[in-house]
Write a structure and sequence with these properties.
By secondary structure, the chain is α/β, with parallel strands linked by helices. It has helices at residues 5-18, 58-68, 84-97, 116-124, 171-174, 176-179; strands at residues 23-28, 38-40, 46-48, 50-52, 73-77, 101-104, 133-134, 140-141, 143-147, 153-154, 166-169. It has a domain at 5-131: P-loop containing nucleotide triphosphate hydrolases (Rossmann fold), CATH 3.40.50. It is 30% helix and 21% strand. A hairpin with a 5-residue loop joins β9 (143-147) and β10 (153-154). The longest helix has 14 residues, at 5-18. It is globular. The protein starts with a helix and ends in a 9-residue tail after the last helix. 29% of the residues are buried.
Length: 188
């Protein structure tokens, strides 16, 4: 959270378009923080995007799109919300259609559990680039804590809760042992 992932995506799209190339941007429909059909960043940048749901077929759609006009790059915002099938489809876009796919998203939820899309992206990606942000402790933030409307930490709930009520934290500040659903008894 708050690392500038959407800003980087928009910068990539701008760079492709500046070179006269076609970069297609996709975002999950579940992400309703931005206006419909838009990817926006906290610093005010925005661009049009195609919204997708869980049954959206990236490979078929992009293959049909390339028959009408050249697609030079595919950009995915909030990639953690992809299904494993959609990650496979995007992998095939790279391997069979020879189109680069750049995905931007979170690795884990507020309990430190991987999102389905993130798990398969991490497993199958040819290249990973970590976008870094910091915790209020000054350490590198790798986790995301969920907060209520008063800024208090929420320790349980549904995996997906769209909103700006998250705080980036270092793993040490995050208290992984307290929030993880993995049971482990320790004597310390």
């Amino acid at each position: 959270m708050n690392a500038g992932k959407s800003t980087m995506l928009l910068q990539s799209a701008y760079n492709y378009r500046e070179q006269g190339m076609n970069a297609t941007i996709y975002k999950p429909k579940i992400d309703d923080l931005s206006p419909n059909g838009q990817v926006t960043s906290r610093i005010g940048l925005s661009a049009d995007a195609v919204e997708f749901e869980n049954d959206f077929d990236f490979f078929d759609t992009i293959k049909r799109e390339t028959a009408q006009s050249k697609v030079d790059c595919v950009l995915i915002d909030e990639a953690q919300f992809l299904s494993k099938t959609q990650v496979l489809q995007l992998t095939l876009v790279c391997d069979q259609l020879d189109i680069p796919v750049l995905c931007y998203g979170l690795r884990t939820d507020f309990c430190g559990e991987p999102f389905e899309g993130s798990k398969y992206l991490l497993a199958w990606a040819e290249e990973l680039v970590e976008v870094k942000t910091i915790c209020k402790s000054g350490r590198k933030a790798t986790m995301n804590a969920r907060l209520d409307e008063n800024g208090n930490r929420i320790w349980e709930g549904a995996q997906v809760d769209i909103g700006h009520h998250y705080e980036p934290m270092s793993r040490q500040e995050f208290e992984l042992l307290r929030v993880t659903p993995i049971e482990y008894d320790r004597d310390v």
